[in-house]
Each structure stands twice: as C-alpha cells, then as structure tokens.
Amino acid sequence: MTTTDSGGRYTEAAMTEAMHRIADQLDVPSHDARLLRLTNNAVFALPTAAIVVRITRSTTLHHRVHKVTRLATWFAERHAPTTRLATHVDQPIPVDGLLATIWEYVPPTEPAPTVEDLGHLLHHFHHLGTPPFSLPTWNPVADAQRRIADAEALRDDEADYLMAWCDRLTPRIATLNNQSKNHLVHGDAHTGNLLRTPDGDVVIGDFDPTCKGPWQVDLVAVPVGETRFGRHSAHRRLAHAYGYDVTQDPDWPTLREARELKMVCAAVPLLASAPGIAREFRTRLHSIRNQDQQARWTPFGDLNREIRP
After folding, report:
1. Which end of the chain is more exposed for a tag (fewer CB within 10 A), N or C?
2. 278-290 in b/e burial notation, b at 16+ Cβ within 10 A?
3. Is 263 within 8 Å of 284 (Cβ atoms)?
4. Best CATH choice for the domain 12-104 from the list 3.90.1150.10, 3.30.200.20, 3.30.310.50, 3.20.20.70
C-alpha cells in the first residue's frame, strides 16, 4: 500500500484496501464497511462486525497511536464517558507500515448530541485527573509549524505570515502552560466528536490531540466556531452547561488565536489537491491578516471530506 495523494497521505483506495485486510485478519465481515472520516486517520465503521477501524495515514504519527491506546485503556478503567477500544484485539495492529486501532461500534442513535451534552461531558472529563503516564503538553504552535513545513502549495508570503504568527504566539502559549498545572485536555472538543449510545449516554472520541495543559482549551472551539461560521447561541448554552464562560477568561485572546491558527493551518497539506479548500484557506488567512472578526468562514468538511477542523 504505497499510493499517496499530493499531500503525502495515503489515498482513500489504499486505506480501504488496508481496512479489508485488517477485517480478514480479524475474521470479521467488512461487506457493509463505510468510510466515516479521511483526515489524519481513515476511520471505517463495520456495523455487522460491531467495530470501527481507525488507521493512521502517516508513518510519522505512530507515537500518537500508542498514546491513544494507553489513554483509551485508562479511560475504560476510570469508567470515563469515552469511546472504547475493542477488548478482544491486541492493539495497535500493524498494517503495511501503518498502525490501526479497533474500537467498539456505536450505532447512530437519536437525538444527536448537543452542546449541552458537550458541556456536561467536559465537566466530567476535566475531573478525571491525569493518567499515570506521560502526555504531551498542549502546543498548537508546533502542530501548525509541522503543517506549514510540509506544505507544497503555500506561497512564500503566506508561509512567512503563518510562521511569524507562530512566533508571536509561542511565548503566550508557554505562559498559559506554565499557569495550567497540567490539567487533562481533550484537545478537539466539539459535538462532531460526540456519540450517543443506544442507552442514551453521550461519549467522546478522537484522543489524538489529548494532552496536558489549560482545561479552558476544551471550551474554545464552540465560541470560535460560532463567530467564524455564523452560528448562534451555541456558546451561551455550552457555558451554562459547563458552568464557565471562557470568553470572559483573561487568557481568552490567546486561546482564541490558538484555535484560529489550528483552523487556518488545518488546510495547508491539501492546498495543492483541493481547489475549494485552497480558496477557503485564503479567505480565512485574509481575514486574520486584516483582523476582520466579522468575516464568515465555511467549514472545510462542507468542501471536501478529506479534512475537517
């Protein structure tokens, strides 16, 4: 499996082939498999087998896979409101130089999780404590810098601006981390990462970005998304459910900028292969450069399923 797209990631066809090989290895049916996401990971639901197969699309992210399996095991031991690894499989599973993890399938259940569910869940999540093993420190700048360094279609002026933005944010992020007392941070807390179980409980998944740092980080995606995507009332409802309004936090300007940096740089690896995403990236960057908080953005997921912020 060597086929990659222009961003250097393994293609949908290659990842689908790998998923079927994993299913054969596990001796489970995959005829009804469907692709859920194609971002840093290819995520497939196999409903008949009652599992989800999650395959990394980069050989440089193996450390994340091992971190995720350790976290998921710890969450299960703590009875945390999180998705669960399949218990009958040795994890992770190697497949052609990549790594895969196998998760319990949660069938789509109504009603869809809400921001109120997110607020209540995060309140529980943030009181779990920290695991008895090392976690990376929250560092959105380092992630952005890696994406910028790997970009193939980024103009020099764009790269220069983004790197200067990273440089300005670096000491402010360090200050927040020094003040944070190393709280558990999910890292990408939004309703798209929530699932409702058939029992009615709500759980959160996607632990790739989970780290230690300021807990307020997990309350930022909703208000920033409300401003940039023109959504209404979501932040007020989240703040009420959690019991804290992050927009009134003294560090809100830094927290907001860190989230916006992530939302802009998420597109960088796909500029060469996805014209719609490239246009949206430049819309976002233009509004940042001009300090235009009124500019409306379009979710990348509405333009191309290969990336979702």
Report:
1. N
2. bebbeebbebbee
3. yes
4. 3.30.200.20
Task: Say which residues have a Cβ less than 8 Å from residue 183's Cβ, sequence separation at least 6.
Answer: 126, 130, 212, 213, 214, 215
pLDDT along the chain (309 residues), means of 10: 50 92 97 90 96 90 92 97 95 93 96 97 97 95 89 90 97 95 93 95 96 97 93 93 98 96 87 84 95 90 54
CA distance 24 to 75: 28
Length in residues, the chain: 309
Q: How many CB atoms lie within 10 A of CB 150?
A: 14
Q: Which residue has the tokens 């023109």?
A: 230
Taking the C-alpha atoms of residue 177 and residue 280, their distance in angstroms, rounded to an integer, is 31
User: What CATH code would you report for 115-298?
Assistant: 3.90.1200.10
Residue with tokens 């560092």: 139
**Is the CB of residue 206 less than 8 Å from the CB of residue 188?**
yes
User: E strands along 168-286, which residues?
Assistant: 183-185, 194-196, 202-204, 211-213
